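Reading a protein record of the kind used here takes only a little practice. The integers have meaning only within a learned vocabulary of local backbone shapes. With that in mind, consider the following protein and its fold in token form:
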Amino acid sequence: MIKLTHAALAAGVLVTVPALAQTTPPAPPAPQTTPATPAPVTDEEVTKFAKAALAADAVSKDAAIPATEKQAKMAEAVVSNGLEATRFNEIAQASQSDPALQQKVQAAIIAIRDAKPATPAGPAATPTPTQTQ
């Protein structure tokens, strides 16, 4: 498996965002009292976003999933990680225009990705017995 650089991983994950926008129905017009800007992104949402982005990215790269089902599966991956698709898209858009948020998202993605245990690759991963003296 080819290892991606941290920036490429984050950029690749954010590429899936526009696809999710198509899976949500259009929102009704907002009342006049609703601010035009989305709510600030909390640290908890950054973590949920990172988990959802990694899950959606895995779905988009899974050759076993038919292309016709990938949109729905990516949306399911987002929702199963605690975010609505619309909020996921808001955070993705905000991270593209806010360098500080983008750094938080990238750091969260890297931390989550690096925290997952690597799967052993064949006999080389088997520990050798230690010698006793």
